[in-house]
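Tutorial, part two.
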Amino acid sequence: MALASLVDAGADLATVVSGLEALRLDGWHIEARSVVREGVAATYLHVEVDDPSSHGRPWAQVRALLAEATGLPERARLRSLAVFETLAEAEAAVHRAPVEEVHFHEVGGLDAIVDIVGTCLALEALGIEAVFASPVPLGRGTVRSAHGALPNPAPAVLRLLAGAPVLGMDEPVELTTPTGAALLAALAATFGAMPAMTLRASGYGAGSRDNLGRPNVVQAVIGDLSAEAGDASVGEGTDEELVLVEANVDDLSGEVLGHLVPALIEAGALDAWLVPAIGKKGRPVHVVSALTTPSRMSRVASTLLRQSGTLGLRRHPVMRTALERRWSEVTVDGHRVRVKIGPHRAKAEHEDCVAVAALTGRPLAEVAFLAEAAARAPGPH
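Running the prediction step on this input gives:
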């Protein structure tokens, strides 16, 4: 239903199918058709597999499958990996087993792999930078699984949605599957009201059930975030007066220039950077800039004069708006990674990612993506 909603909103299904072929998995095809659910026109997608009884793959096999799918767009591959890793961690917690021993049953089947990777490919086809989700509806009763009858919502769904707003519905059907919950837990930046945006498109993905007394659809809304979106969801930033200290230098070696930035940070600069420019008489120069508080300005300026040897510098009062941010700690393959979380993105600490990449053999970008996805997921970290 998630994939169908994105296709209905404009994602090209042929592009999605072409991307899925990079997985080199045989025995499946997608059938799409237009349907109406309680008066709402929607797209229904059915993933048909040649051997429906062939269920399940271990997490390690799914991970290897995605790692070897070099034909996938990189962000779609990393998003898919994050969804399955989030799901593996939830399954491990539910069964109290090591993550590496997790065996996916229904969600390891061909149709579920196509659903998850296809959804990430559809997001890529639409150019989606960030995903936001509404509160998640949950049914009641029991559901069938490879483990037999389970309470509805399933234990893995509850684990995946820990920390997210949910709505208990008086309906004896499964309203949110583990696949859908994993997509939301791994990809949604926030849960709640729709952020302020300029609306571009919308789409509806239909489920197989009909005549439920309501449209059995997932709604996707595509748009460009408004400037006020951050304020609407997380509150306004804090304004603070800072000082920008700058100097032009034209006679320093690369090694000395490289030392300047960490030296200024150590002296108390909040940020420091170098910008190449052309100076008088056409000479190449570098503009050395450091942002600092008024109380630390003297020490930062002294460090810039001493370390660069420049004969002068400039000071400008500036106003900075600082948005709310917090730190979280997550694990990637059992190793700690610190992540800074702001209203619009999560940023993994570079040094931690470098260390984990060296220990695990994962690419640096993959470690950062998985850490950031884990930090965005609801629940304790």
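The chain has a mean pLDDT of 88. In part three we will examine how such features are distributed along the chain.
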